[in-house]
Write a sequence for this structure.
C-alpha cells in the first residue's frame, strides 16, 4: 500500500473528509515533493497538490497519484475551490505547522470545520520502508566515514569550530547535502554541556572531546555521538566513560519491538543510577530519526508508546560532570522483531589520541 493510500485509510479511521498537508517534511513523505512552495489536500478518495508555476513540472514528476493544481493567486484560494468542489465538511490541518495568521485566513475562507490533526502523517513516518532504511544507512555510512576522518585532525591547539567545519565539509564531499543539525564539538569542561555546539575554545591536552553530528542524505538524517580523549584523561572521566559505554551496549543488546520507550530508557538509566551517576544523566535516552532529526518514537521516562519493527531510533546515554567534562555515546538503531540492528559502526571503546 502506498503512503498516500495509508494516509487515506487513516482519514477514514479518523472520520475526516480530508487533510491539508503543509509541513515540508510531510509533503516530502506523502507526495515525494522536494520543492519549497506547495501544499496538498488529500481526501479519502483523491489527492491534490497545489503549487505555483515554478514547481508545477517538478510536482508533476514527483507527486504521483496527485492532481496538480497551479495557483496564480493566493494559494489558499485553491484550497477553497477544492473544499467547495469536493463538498468537504471536516478538514484536518497540521496545527504545528499552520501559523495563527494562516489559520485565521483559512477560517475566514473555508465553509467547513477545521480539525487539528498534527501527528497523523508523522505516525506513518515512524515506520520506515526498505527504501527509507537504505537511505538512512547511507547517511550513517557517511557519518562513520566522517568520524574516522576527523580523528586525525583533533589535537591540542585546534579549535572546536575548526573541527566541526572540517567534519561538515568532509561529509559534504562524500555526498551529504547538509548536516542534520549544528555539529556539536565540546572539549574539556565544555563536554559537560550536552548540547555544547562548537565554539572557538582550543582543544587541550587531557580533554575529553564529544562529537555529536550527522548528515542529510537524500532527505534523511543520521545522528551519532562519540567521545574521545586527547592524551591521557582524568581517572574520573575514564570511570564515567566505561559506565556510559556499558549502559549504551545494554540498550543495543536488549532493545526490541514490543518494548515501550520507558522500558528502553530504563535499561540505560538504571545502569547509570546503579553506578551512582543517575542525577548526571538528565536527558532522554533517545528519539526517532528520519526526515527530521527529532521525530517519533521517543525513548524516555515519558514515552509509553511501544516500539515496532521499522522504527529507527537513537541510543545516546550520557553522564555530565560540571567543571570536569562529560561523555555521550550514540548509535542509530533499526528496530526488528527480535532486537535491533546497529546502523552506525564507528568504534566505541575509548580512543586516546
Amino acid at each position: 500500500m502506498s503512503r498516500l493510500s495509508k494516509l487515506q485509510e487513516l482519514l477514514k479511521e479518523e472520520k475526516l473528509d480530508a487533510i491539508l498537508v503543509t509541513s515540508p517534511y510531510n509533503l516530502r513523505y506523502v507526495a515525494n515533493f522536494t520543492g519549497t512552495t506547495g501544499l496538498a489536500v488529500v481526501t479519502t478518495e483523491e489527492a491534490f497538490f497545489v503549487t505555483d508555476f515554478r514547481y508545477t513540472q517538478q510536482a508533476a514528476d514527483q507527486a504521483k497519484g496527485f492532481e496538480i493544481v497551479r495557483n496564480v493567486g493566493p494559494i489558499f484560494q485553491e484550497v477553497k475551490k477544492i473544499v467547495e468542489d469536493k463538498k468537504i465538511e471536516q478538514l484536518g490541518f497540521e496545527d504545528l505547522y499552520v501559523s495563527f495568521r494562516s489559520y485565521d485566513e483559512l477560517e475566514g475562507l473555508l465553509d467547513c470545520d477545521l480539525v487539528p490533526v498534527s501527528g497523523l502523517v508523522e505516525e506513518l513516518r515512524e515506520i520506515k520502508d526498505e527504501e527509507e532504511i537504505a537511505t538512512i544507512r547511507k547517511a550513517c555510512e557517511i557519518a562513520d566515514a566522517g568520524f574516522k576522518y576527523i580523528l586525525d585532525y583533533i589535537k591540542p591547539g585546534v579549535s572546536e569550530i575548526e573541527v566541526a567545519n572540517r567534519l561538515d565539509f568532509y561529509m559534504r564531499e562524500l555526498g551529504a547535502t547538509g548536516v542534520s543539525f549544528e555539529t556539536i564539538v565540546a572539549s574539556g569542561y565544555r563536554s559537560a554541556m550536552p548540547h555544547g555546539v562548537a565554539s572557538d575554545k582550543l582543544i587541550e591536552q587531557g580533554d575529553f572531546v564529544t562529537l555529536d553530528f550527522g548528515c542529510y542524505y537524500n532527505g534523511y538524517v543520521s545522528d551519532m555521538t562519540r567521545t574521545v580523549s586527547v592524551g591521557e584523561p582524568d581517572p574520573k572521566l575514564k570511570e564515567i566513560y566505561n559506565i556510559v559505554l556499558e549502559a549504551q551496549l545494554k540498550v543495543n543488546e536488549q532493545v526490541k519491538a514490543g518494548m515501550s520507550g520507558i522500558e528502553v530508557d530504563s535499561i540505560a538509566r538504571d545502569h547509570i543510577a546503579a553506578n551512582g551517576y543517575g542525577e548526571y544523566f538528565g536527558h532522554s535516552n533517545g528519539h526517532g530519526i528520519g526526515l527530521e532529526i527529532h521525530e517519533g518514537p521517543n525513548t524516555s521516562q515519558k514515552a509509553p508508546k511501544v516500539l515496532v519493527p521499522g522504527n529507527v531510533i537513537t541510543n545516546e546515554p550520557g553522564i555530565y560532570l560540571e567543571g570536569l567534562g562529560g561523555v555521550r555515546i550514540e548509535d542509530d538503531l533499526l528496530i526488528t522483531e527480535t532486537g535491533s540492528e546497529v546502523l552506525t559502526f564507528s568504534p566505541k571503546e575509548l580512543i586516546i589520541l
